[in-house]
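Collaboration report, partner site 2.

Our partner group contributed sequences for two proteins of shared interest, and the home lab folded both. The records are reproduced in the order in which they were received, starting with the first partner submission.
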Amino acid sequence: MIPACQLSIIVEWSNALLTEADRPARMMESLVAQASKLETAMGGQEGNAMFPVEVLICYDGNQVDSEKISAMAPLAAPGSHGALQVTHCDFPGAEYYELKNLGAKRAVGELFLFLDSDVVPQENWLENLWAAFNDPGHQVMAGISSIEPVSLYAKAMALNWVFNTPPPWQDIRPGTHFWANNVCFRREVFETYPFPTMNGASRGACRELAETLVKDRIPLHINGAARVSHPAPAGLGGFFERAMAQGRDRVLWHQRFSSWWMQSIPAGFLRYIKHLGSVAWSTLLRHRQASVRIWEIPAILVIAASYYTVFFAGEMFTHVSPQFMKKKFRV
């Protein structure tokens, strides 16, 4: 059963503008259903103290407004929805990680659960993450994020993008990395360790934060039973933008944390070759994990190799015009 500590769920609404139209609504439907199920199961005085759960929808008012959010996902409209109390928080000009940090400053809970607007929580996700904090040794608890292999394109990304296919285990294990789309912090930990500033990159703060937590010996765990479905990049435009942004972010990461060699163009070319090799290895050896048929393998290889070719182009353009690249591809 869940611990007697209040939970705040912080949902960024930038990814909702980049994904399939139905995913934000599906995310909220799953969240309402799971919270309501927990409230019913607990009941009594304890349940009354823990519910409704605070949900903060954090968005950039220059990109979207409260009315549009409510139209995209009716259960994300401000007000009471089952066991949730939804509040809209407008942070003009804020991007992905900043929305999370600013939302945490508004939150009242003892636990901060960060969920993205484009993922869909799977069965018992909320209970599995929340209940893990019955153990006082659990300070940061991340879940599993993966892509459902529902199409040829999704299969290619499930095998070869940043989100691995789901592991066979569902217990809680020590970890060294997490995704910001599916993670819960004790309040005092996150107030000390918020997401760091990215200095021109749009992704990578969760990697930097995880390394800091490990270095400072703050326990980080992975809950194999707390799973969400993540989308592949939406359409050809999303595919191109994500790959360009990821290539840019890789260069900016190495410029901050790595040797001169890792920052160089030759190193970028070697990374490209390594990526192509990884695509071949992953697709050929793990294709069954994404339900890939033998005759689909050539197309999978072409899709994934194309992604990392654009990724390499993003690296090269960042060397040529870093300021332009920092302004573009804010995904």
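Second partner submission, folded after the first:
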Amino acid sequence: MIAQLKQKLKSKSKSASATKAKNKAKSASEQQSNQQPNEKSAQQNGFVPTPFNPPFWLTNPHLQTILPKFFAPKPPTYRREIIRDSLDESDVAYDFYDAYPIDTKSGQKEQTPLVVLFHGMEGSSDSHYARVLAHHIHAQGWHFVVAHFRSCGGIPASGRVFYNAGDTAEVHHMLQTLTQHYEHIYAVGVSLGGNALAKYMGEYAEDVCCEAAVSISSPVDMSSAAMNMQRFLGQKIYTPYLLNPIIKKALKNEISDEEIEAIKAVDRISDFDHIFTAPRHGYRSNNDYYRSASALPYLIDVAKPLLLISAMDDPFIGFTATQNDVSECVTLVDTDHGGHIGYLRYLPEQKKFDINWIPETVADYFKFVGIAS
């Protein structure tokens, strides 16, 4: 009897020790996971980017968001083509930075890869992220083009429709147009253009006209992004910067006197979307626009490689995707710092600032998924 009792107590002691060891290992694993958010998210699909580790004095998200434009290289000499939009209403600009001179009238498809950039709200080929990406892609020996949305790049929209974050039909039309001359196409989207591209990758799935894509600083949940923009700094600093140019464009378009008065009184992006963007693009309201245009619900259906880069301190984007929200084709890279399309580094050995982390990561990812050479 006593022997049986001793054996039972010994068995319980072993079980408790095993449970304790298991919990300790789990705790250590979770701690390591929390310490390395970039590597953890990326390793699930095998791609590990160079960590983004700015010095402590450069981690402020607003510095990361505002300063990069002052450190952008000069724009390259683009070759511009004007092509009609998907509705055959407006001309849009395609600004190419060719790896070498090409003959688009030869009838043969170019075999060197083409990287297409879809810009952010009121962006263009002159935006800081477009310039630095253009130069880095060119250095890889690849072709590059900025596909402008309607009314951007210095060409006014001719019809009633401008651009919006969920216009995947326009994204598909642009890529289809480029497939007429290029065999291998890779896409990059930034901010608003990044949401449109990510939504396109899920909505069109196997039928997308690119072999892989990267989406950067993208508001994949647009309702929470709109709420972010109503905070103090978003309202006072970022909103005027983004909103004033598009309001000027809207006032030059064919709009009623009532629309003019309403637009002039706007001081929030969500109000502008309710008055102008939503009704012009077939949405019932700004709420309907944000719900329908958000990429987040579509990420589970992505069928080709997609890298989604988000900074956890981004003052614009709101909620971001988690691994349970996406298909196995999507790689998530969530960095602690970076701001909105920022990723500004300081190189102490060279004593200079640098905004090449984004283009370096884009090129590394395309090489990882097997970009044609």
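Feedback sent to the partner group on the second submission included the following. The CA atoms of residues 122 and 245 lie 7 Å apart. The mean pLDDT is 86.
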